[in-house]
Amino acid sequence: MARQEDPPVTNNNSNKFEPYVKATESVAEVTIKALILGAIISVVFGVANAYLALKFGMTVSASIPAAVMSMAVLRLLFRRDNVTVLENNIVQTVGSAGESLAAGITFTIPAFFIWAANSDMIAMGYVHEVSKTQIFWMAMLGGSLGILLMIPLRKYLVEKEHGKLKFPEGTACAEIIAAGDVGGSKAKMVFMGLGLGALYKTLMVIARLWKESPGYDFKGILKGGTIGIDAAPALLGVGYIIGPRIASLMMAGAVIGYLGIGPLLAFIGEQIPGLIISPGTIPLSDMDPAQLRNFYIKYLGVGAVAFGGTISLMKSIPTIFHSFKSGFAQLLPKKSAAKDDTPRTDRDLPMSVVLIGSVLIVTAIWLLPGTELHFLGALLAVIFGFFFVVVSARIVGIVGSSSNPVSGMTIFTLLVTCLILLKFGITGVSGMITAMSVGAVVCIAVCMSGDIAQDLKTGYLLGATPKRQQLTEFIGLLFPALAMGFTLYLLGDVFGWVESAAHPKPLLAPQANVMATIVQGVIGGNIPWTPIFVGAMIALGIELLGINSLPVAIGLYLPLSLSSPIMLGGIVAMLIKKTTRDKALYKLRQEGGILFGSGLVAGGGLIGVVSAGLIAGIPAFKVFYDSYESTSFIFGGFGEYLSLIMIFGLAFVVFFAARSFAKQS
After folding, report:
1. Distance between first and last Cα of the chain
2. 217: which strand partners?
3. Residue 218: what are its φ and ψ, rounded to 5°?
4. What are 584-622's pLDDT values in tens digits?
5. Do 601 and 234 touch, CB atoms closer than 8 A?
6. What is the pLDDT of residues 631-653, one digit of tens each?
7. Per DSSP, which regions of 340-388 are E strands?
8. How many CA atoms lie within 13 A of 350 on its CB side?
9. Would you list the domain boundaries of the chain?
10. What is the 3-state secondary structure (H, E, C) of 545-566?
11. How many CA atoms does the CB half-sphere of 243 hold within 13 Å?
């Protein structure tokens, strides 16, 4: 299959990449208005996504909505000629940090609250309580670690891998900001996609006119298998941007898991009625596809992602070593004129800042009270933090932040950490607190590294100064970190963490519940290692075929319904290639498709955040949202078919929009 060409944000036709704002140009970048607006957006998106993650187990990427909001607000308050492209870039850099931090915190920290409300844990003597202050410091330390560890990798992942790693959200942000600046046919294409994506998402999510994720669980021969599609415009746009090759690898992993392994497990269950296989709690024959994923396929994905990430890291070691070598060279004395030789667009925070900052963070993690993070725990947090920062940054470059399997990487961290702690005799409640504290720091670091990787890609395409983006990322971390503790306590007081008479419908917090269960299971000696190792062997087999196993592993870990719309977007990109013989014409059509797809991602993301706000702020809408079945009378049983018609119709619109762009240019 054909691979997508380089993103079109460039000002020349030569082989050497030229950013939107040249390195020799000096324009306003970090300004007070950009920092204030970015901080506000960061807190709003962070709080909204914290609720969304705890209640529904999902978050909404904030990078593209932040970019769009930046253009809208700054243009409203200031004249167009008083707002620069790089100011908008700083707003989205700061503003997107809140969502990433919310994911890292809500996937892990609630485990402490869940244990505190669990009668079995109380019987074991668990009396630990995480304070708002501790949540703030864990957020700041983990987030800062992720930002600092990503800095030496920028040259490799963002620059040297340009054209290979697409960074869908980062590319989409750059397209949107650049299109908003130049106007014309590019701006029209982006905002047409944005408007259509927003309208589509509004009708689907807010008006509830058709089902979000139609699916079908097979009976008969393929019993235990499932197909479905998350009919989201954002995922369709991501699929077009990353192209058919990566999309097909993801889909291959989903097919292996949900149309291969799932039916095989169901078949075994039918042959041995009443068979219960740990960690399952009901007979295998009684499980539906969702339960098969939760108890077995998910662990296969964890093993595959861990192995694929390890291989990816090993392949990157030479260039990572070169990046660190170049950074260490900054520590050596050199002529004063040498600093002036570095182009503005290639200036990172010096390696001395990275090293000193990392040492201070490690020391602070070690000394942080209430986390049981003694020297061994702090060391494990740094080791796993660096490992998965590299893996996460590469994954978001392949499939985007929305599909980054952060929980899978955190689960792997918890598994290995628990085993190491057991080896050193650290058991019981103390061992559980240590392991979860390590997992929380690593999870937050991984989430923040994925966010800054996308932001740095946006900056690279637009011609930003990396050093300034890296510094302002800490501002984007600070303000939502202050709000996260209050948000968790508020939601916990209102909804509760476990089911009780006072809280009949507690917060689901699915990721945190999984983390809490795994830590308890490993410390208690009942974790399912076999499917984890089998998943690693699947990834090994894929690597031996000469295929990058990481996208396949991601597809195996994620539900099939997330891979299918990405595959649909990739197919549209392939059809554009197949139906266009002229190379120059294809380049124009491809550019138009990326612009339109970027708009779809933006529109879908914006309405996703709006719907989260409605759910959080309007009780009546929450009831309406939760009771989809009772409101589906509008189209009745036709709702699922309408969903398929709409998402395939949207794919046709993308196809024809891309083809028509050449006529407008």
Report:
1. 27
2. 226
3. -70, 150
4. 898 889 878 887 887 887 777 678 767 767 776 777 777
5. yes
6. 454 566 677 888 899 999 999 99
7. none
8. 9
9. 32-332+344-664
10. CCCCHHHHHHHHHCCHHHHHHH
11. 20
- Count of CB atoms situated within 10 Å of the CB of 209: 17
Tens digits of residue pLDDT in 451-475? 899 999 999 999 999 999 999 999 9
User: Which token pair is 168?
Assistant: 């869908």
DSSP result, 209-231: -S-SS-EEE--GGGTT-EEE---
- Residue 81 confidence (pLDDT): 65
C-alpha angle 31/36/41, rounded to 5°?
Answer: 125
How does DSSP classify residue 165?
B
Who has greater pLDDT, 351 or 225? Answer: 225
Whether the CB-CB separation of 523 and 428 falls below 8 Å is answered with yes
Question: pLDDT, tens digit, for every residue of 24-78?
Answer: 888 889 999 999 999 998 988 888 778 767 875 666 667 777 777 777 788 778 7
Q: How far is C-alpha 584 from the chain's CA centre?
A: 34
CB contact set of 284 (below 8 Å; sequence gap of 6+): 265, 266, 268, 269, 272, 275, 276, 277
Count of Cβ atoms closer than 10 Å to residue 15 Cβ: 6
Q: pLDDT for 158-167, tens place per residue?
A: 887 787 787 8
Cα distance between residue 351 and residue 364, in whole Å? 20
Q: What separation in angstroms does the CA of 54 have from each of 343, 479, 508?
A: 44, 20, 6
Q: What is the mean pLDDT of the chain?
A: 82
Given the structure tokens 């291989």, which residue do they identify? 311
Cα 248 → chain centroid: 19
Both tokens assigned to 521? 């299971």
> Which are the contacts of 92, defined by CB distance < 8 A and separation ≥ 6?
38, 63, 64, 66, 67, 70, 173, 177, 455, 458
Residues 3-25: tens digit of each pLDDT? 333 344 444 444 567 888 888 88
- Cβ neighbours of 119 (radius 10 Å): 9
Q: Residue 321: pLDDT band by 50, 70, 90 thresholds?
A: low
Could you report the per-residue pLDDT of 469-498, keeping only the tens digit for each? Answer: 999 999 999 999 999 998 888 888 877 887
Give Cα 326 to chain centroid, integer Å.
Answer: 29
> What are the tokens at 142?
């983990």
By the 10 Å C-beta count (0-12 exposed, 13-18 middle, 19+ buried), 429 is classed as middle
**For residue 1, is pLDDT > 60?**
no
Token pair in block for residue 225: 């298998």
Tell me the pTM.
0.71
3-class state of residue 162 by DSSP:
strand
State the DSSP string of 494-519. HH-SS--SS-SS----HHHHHHHHHH
Q: Tokens in use for 108?
A: 């892990």
3-state secondary structure 311-322: HHHHHHHHHHHH
